[in-house]
Every structure is written in structure tokens, then in C-alpha cells.
Amino acid sequence: DAGVIQSPRHEVTEMGQEVTLRCKPISGHNSLFWYRQTMMRGLELLIYFNNNVPIDDSGMPEDRFSAKMPNASFSTLKIQPSEPRDSAVYFCASRKQGGGGSSGEQYFGPGTRLTVT
Amino acid sequence: DAKTTQPTSMDCAEGRAANLPCNHSTISGNEYVYWYRQIHSQGPQYIIHGLKNNETNEMASLIITEDRKSSTLILPHATLRDTAVYYCIVRGPGNQFYFGTGTSLTVIP
């Protein structure tokens, strides 16, 4: 099992540029999560999908952030335009949500380290 | 979801048991206790979870008090590779994880 795959692993861009982060969840998992981690705010949930449908995007900081999941094996998180305060590590996680019980644990990818100058 | 309280940092001697406490006094009946850890620069890693009973797997043991208001994660024989930030999370079925600040565990040679 390849685990959750994220690309790129590192991204350096200038303020105002568009940034697209990509995630491939574990095959068979039907929930996908995007998190952001900074020293100041820790690990924050941005948005999550169930069966490719966005369920809760209340953690998305601004309209500059958008996320899509066109199919079960791919998701993107886009920032347009990017700002220096968006610099963080962005994690994608997936989960196989079953019926009842604890609904399964989340498996995290290695993260994308974004630096906006 | 219930809020959790963890010590900011702890040390443990290599080879000894590491006992990491977590308070979740407002936990409700259907909320599970999850533990994750994050080794520097990596994504969080699932360790264990439980509802009422104590649980054990190849990584750790989880001890939940009878009133469920607190729990302890036990790493039976800590190694240097167990140095990480450990997060205690309480969530109900279908609800999502909200990570707090966690406990920074340092295993000392």
C-alpha cells in the first residue's frame, strides 16, 4: 500500500501566484481531509470530503482557498492569490468510513511545505 | 467534541515505559479517545483508540479510567524513535479530529 501521496513535497512561490497542492488518497478510502500546520496555530482542519462531496469547509480561511475532489482518487487544494501568511505545511489525510463505531482512523500523507515569499 | 488537556512536554529514559496522560472531563458517552503522534517533519501517525475498555496493540496500550474523564497512553519500552509530539483527541462517530497542542515526548538515551 503506497499510503497517501502528496505533491509537491516542497513549494516556494512569490506572493500573488497561484498554488495548487495535490493529494491521492489510499485506494478504497472514502473520506479525505486537508489540514494546515503552523507553529502559531498548530494543526488545523481546513475541509473534508465524504464520497467526493465537500462536507465541512468551515476551516477554509478565506475565499482565496478552494478545494476540489473530482474523483475518489484525487483532490486539489488551491490558493489564489497566495500570501506570505499562507506559508505552512499542508497535510492530506484519508479514511475509510464505515457504518457506526469509530469510523476508522485517518492516515496522513507526508505533507507539502509551502513557502510564499 | 470534548476538549482535551495534555502536559506540554515530558521526558522518558530509553527502555523505560512512557506514560502520557490526557484529561477529557467533558467527554460524552459516544465519543472515542484517539491517540496520534507526529515525528518531526512527518504527517501525524495513528497509534490507538478506544471507547471504554483498555486497548493494546503492537505500538502502545491505552488505559481509560472508569468514568472516562481521563486516559493514559503507555509506550512500554520507549526508544529514541518514539521522540515525537503525541496528540490525544476525543471525537464522536462521524465527527472530525481537532488536534490540540499535544505532548512533546523526548526519549533520553
Structure description:
Chain A has 117 residues and is an all-beta fold. Chain A has strands at 5-7, 10-13, 19-24, 31-38, 42-50, 53-56, 65-71, 74-79, 88-95, 107-108, 112-116. In chain A, strands 2, 4, 5, 6, 9, 10 and 11 form a seven-stranded mixed β-sheet that branches. In chain A, strands 1-3-8-7 form a four-stranded antiparallel β-sheet, with no helix packed on it. The relative contact order of chain B is 0.35. Chain B has strands at residues 9-13, 18-23, 32-38, 45-50, 55-56, 61-64, 70-75, 84-91, 103-108. Helices cover 0% and strands 46% of the residues of chain B. Chain B is globular, with a radius of gyration of 13 Å.
Please give a quick description of this structure.
Chain A contains no helices and 11 strands.
Note the total helix count of chain B.
0
Total count of strands of chain A: 11
> What structural category characterises the helix and strand content of chain A?
mainly beta
Largest interface, C-beta within 8 A: A-B, 22 and 20 residues
Going by helix content, strand content and strand pairing, the class of chain B is mainly beta
**Percentage of β-strand residues of chain A:** over 45%
Percent range for β-strand residues of chain B: over 45%
Output the helix-strand order of chain A.
EEEEEEEEEEE
Could you give the distance between the termini of chain A? 36 Å
The protein's oligomeric status is heterodimer
Count the beta strands of chain B: 9
Q: What is the string of helix and strand elements of chain B?
A: EEEEEEEEE
Provide the residue-averaged pLDDT of chain B.
92
Rg over CA atoms of chain A: 14 Å
Continuous helix count of chain A: 0
Report the helical percentage of chain B: under 10%
> How would the global form of chain A be characterised?
globular
Fold topology:
The complex is a heterodimer of chains A (117) and B (109).
Chain A: E1 5-7, E2 10-13, E3 19-24, E4 31-38, E5 42-50, E6 53-56, E7 65-71, E8 74-79, E9 88-95, E10 107-108, E11 112-116
Chain B: E1 9-13, E2 18-23, E3 32-38, E4 45-50, E5 55-56, E6 61-64, E7 70-75, E8 84-91, E9 103-108
Parallel strand pairs in B: 1-9
Antiparallel strand pairs in B: 2-7, 3-4, 3-8, 5-6, 6-7, 8-9
